[in-house]
Design a protein that fits this description.
alpha/beta, Metallo-beta-lactamase, Chain A, Arc Repressor Mutant, subunit A, 2 domains, 6-stranded mixed sheet, globular, Beta-lactamase domain protein
Length: 334
């Protein structure tokens, strides 16, 4: 199956530029033709004027209208995937178009969810415990605040759960909860057509970053993203898939080979971390700097997230342990 075959299945992709080079290319919004007319929309892209213009141009190119959208499903609570959903509602004529998402990610997207001023102090305290210097913590706080300009929150996120089937004109899309990249990430799978809408769960050329997720009160260990991701990706590997429709970049095939390479990539990273810890205890920040010596300070959240996530996997196997007796925390080879 190729992308051209998707037209016959009523699936249309709109690529929307993003300002994040780490994302793996433009973000994709998918329009799926419904049985009784109209469209199901899977992800919406960013909420910036440039992204909204690209989305509008995509609708025009396909000869479709915003008022044909009957429901929006958001894969996860990152700004490049839900940011324009409010714009689509408004172009449709009001908030009557329902937006669906997993409850675990709903607070990120909802008007009722916590604001950055509530989240920032908890994240700053956690980063400091992981050895991040105060000036970098301050930089990341400003960076995090700026990220909210890429999206507008939504008045309501209706819950959607594992196992629900979204029936469209040609497809029966099964909702699959695949936590890892975020706690509430959702994918869609047509078992008969062997079509998998993976959003950021599986990308062809980029490893999905396992981002730090703190609990409601800032607690550490609330969600261990890479442990969850490795479990979810094993579930995907077991599925029969002819074509993957990712969140970034064009569709691709060969999902098992990509998954195997990705799992091997994480194993090599963990071996390198163990090698670094043989020389003595280090903070997560020190380990991240050793893994990415040329990374910019603005990349510190991504590199620290990747480092901590791999350390959590190693902790679960008893290969490393964390010394919390004093701050900043240090990791030791077990």
């Amino acid at each position: 199956m190729t992308e051209a075959d998707l037209e016959g299945l009523g699936v249309h992709r709109i690529a929307i530029p993003v300002p994040f080079p780490q994302a793996g290319g433009p973000v994709n919004a998918y329009l799926v033709e419904e049985a009784g007319g109209g469209l199901l929309m899977f992800d919406s892209g960013l909420g910036t004027p440039e992204a909204q213009a690209a989305l509008e141009a995509g609708f025009q190119r396909l000869g479709r209208r915003f008022d044909e959208v009957g429901r929006i499903v958001v894969s996860h609570g990152h700004v490049d995937h839900y940011g324009a959903a409010r714009f689509v509602q408004e172009r449709h004529g009001g908030p009557d178009v329902p937006v669906f998402g997993h409850p675990a990610d709903a607070p990120k997207m909802s008007e009722q969810g916590p604001r950055w001023r509530e989240l920032a102090p908890r994240l700053a305290a956690y980063l400091a415990r992981q050895g991040v210097p105060p000036e970098v913590v301050e930089l990341l706080a400003k960076q995090g605040e700026g990220g909210f300009r890429y999206a507008r929150r939504l008045p309501e996120i209706r819950p959607i759960a594992e196992g629900e089937v979204l029936r469209t004109r040609h497809l029966a899309l099964e909702v699959m909860h695949m936590p890892g990249h975020t706690p509430g990430l959702l994918c869609l799978y047509d078992r008969e057509k062997r079509l998998f809408l993976s959003d950021d769960h599986l990308l062809e050329k980029v490893s999905p970053n396992p981002l730090i997720e703190l609990g409601p009160d800032g607690q550490d260990g609330f969600f261990r993203p890479l442990l969850a991701y490795l479990d979810s990706i094993r579930r995907l590997r077991a599925l029969e898939v002819d074509l993957v429709l990712p969140g970034h970049g064009p569709p691709f095939s060969g999902h098992r080979e990509i998954i195997d390479a990705l799992v091997g990539f994480y194993a090599k990273r963990q071996a390198r971390l163990l090698e670094l810890l043989q020389a003595g205890p280090r903070t997560a920040h020190e380990l991240a700097r050793a893994l990415w010596p040329r990374a910019r300070p603005t990349d510190a959240f991504l590199t620290l997230s990747e480092t901590v996530a791999n350390l959590e996997v190693m902790e679960s196997r008893g290969e490393v342990r964390r010394d919390r007796a004093a701050e900043p925390w240090r990791y030791l080879a077990a």
